[in-house]
Amino acid sequence: MMRPDNNLPEVFVCLEPIDFRKGINGLAAMIENAFELSPFAEALYVFSNRRRNQVKILYWERNGFCLWQKRLEQERFYWLRGTDTKTVVLTGQQLNWLLDGYDITRFKPHKTLKYSRVS
What we know:
2 helices, single chain, five-stranded mixed β-sheet, 5 strands
């Protein structure tokens, strides 16, 4: 089974659905032009179709692009929404939760607290 590593440096999720006829070249151009990111960075770029039953993941691997796709037979992916940006950054673990069908907006941990002393 092929799954993204939980310790990925960055995972960019496109919030808007895309035309799933796009292949590697179309997705790489979208990453550069619409999102102003580098498709050659050490990152994964995640896209969904309008019905939210398919996901494509594009990434650069040393000497070429890789395109990974998952299609659900009955369910839909819980997708992120409600931000002013075109993309959201996730961790590798959050991406795997998304691929497993979890609503990752409910899995947000509490804020990290930093104190300088105990009172």
